[in-house]
Each structure stands twice: as C-alpha cells, then as structure tokens.
Specification:
alpha/beta; Nitrilase/N-carbamoyl-D-aminoacid amidohydrolase; six-stranded mixed beta sheet; 14 strands; globular
Amino acid sequence: MRASLIQLAVSDSEPPAERRARAAALVRAQEGADLVVLPELWPLGGFAYETWGAGAETLEGPTAETMSAAAEAAGVWLHAGSIVERDPDGPIYNTSLLFAPDGELVHTYRKIHRFGFDSGEAVVMGAGQEIVTAATDLGRIGLATCYDLRFPELFRALLDAGAELLVVPAAWPAKRLEHWTLLARARAVEEQAYVLACNTAGTHGGVEQAGHSLVVDPWGRVLAEAGGDEEVLTVDFDQAEVAKARAEFPVHRDRLLGIPAPVQR
C-alpha cells in the first residue's frame, strides 16, 4: 500500500477558500497513492476557536464538495482530515470525512474526546458518540482524531471492531511533540496495527503546531516521519504485516479485562 500524509501548514492569514484550493491541488498530485490523509480542522485551524461558529459547514459544504472532487480526480481513498461540522439540529462537531476513489463520502466520524478541559473545543463542540471503522479494499480502517490518542480504550474498541489500519488526523501543538510520537507508537504496539498520524504545520490561533506526521508499523517501528514544516510524507508498506505480527506475537488472546464473560448454559 502507498499512503501519502499531507502535513498542511495552517495559518490565520490564509483564507479558508484559498486553503481548500491548495489542499485539493495537493490531493490531486498524489495520483498513484492508495490512501491520502489530511490533518484535523485544517480549513479553519484547530485552535482558531473564534472562527468556528461562522466557518462551520455541513457535510454538503464547500470542503466536502472540494475534497470529493479531489479524491475522484486522483483516484484515491481520501481521509480529508476533519471540519467544523454544523449540525442543523444540534451543536457543532469536529467531524472527519472519508471519501472513496469515486468521490463518494462513505464514512464520517465525530470526534469523541474533545480537547481543552474547560475551554475551547471541550466547551464549544459536541462530543461524538459512535466508534467508526470503514471496510475498504485497503483493509478495515479505524478512525480517531488528535486528542483521542490519549485514550487507549477507544483504540482497543477499534481493534475489536476489526481495524487493521488506524488513521489519526491532528492539530497537535509543538510543545507536546514528544507525547505525539510516543502515543502514536504506543497505539500501534497495543493494537498491532499500522498508525497513520497526520498533523498540521504552521501556527494558528496563536499555537505553534508540531508537524512530525508519522507512519508506525504494527511492531511500533517508525517507517517515516516528517519534519516541522509543510510537506507530503509518502510511505509504501505491506498490510500483510498486521496479520503476521498478530500471529507471531498473539498478545490479544491473553486479554482478561474488558472481555465479556462466556454465557453459562
């Protein structure tokens, strides 16, 4: 499989419409890849809270429309990062979008764990309620977003739902870079799955971003890692390594906690 992680630079000075056009051009340039990934909340900025209300959009909005066309033009599976989704009947959400190579929006994921404690995302946005995996011809993809990385129980649930590949778009700050790389590797080791962690570069909402998108294999080895600036990280890897790792080191069969007790008959 060939995956391209687009570590997009996000700044407060670039209008969202211009950034959408630039991101779409970068996606179209990845023709020949199997899967392309964009970061979290790149249209507005993951820390640009004051713009979210006015900039929120529906699943038929300009970002979804632009990304659908880009996925179809490149002929790739596209995890288009996440948008600020406006639910006509509810709050706003941090919602990821997954497009098939024909441009169809096949899955969405509303971020479950909201960052900010008593401010920002934790206050302004609603929390997602559903664990989401996507059956694709690349294998079953588990969807998570940024702060979700700190909650291993979510990733264990994705494993139990059959996930072999975990895709994590993010807007992770530079001051916690060590946590970003450590947690991405930990989730790969724990679930014996590939982790594709795509972060933003640049500075938005006054918060410098860490960059350093990375691809981790089921043994916890970092196959490739970006620097701190905007770049496209392209990696070839063998999905068969997931089954190999799980067969050679069958740790999951020794789980005792969190497993439903057998029914006594």
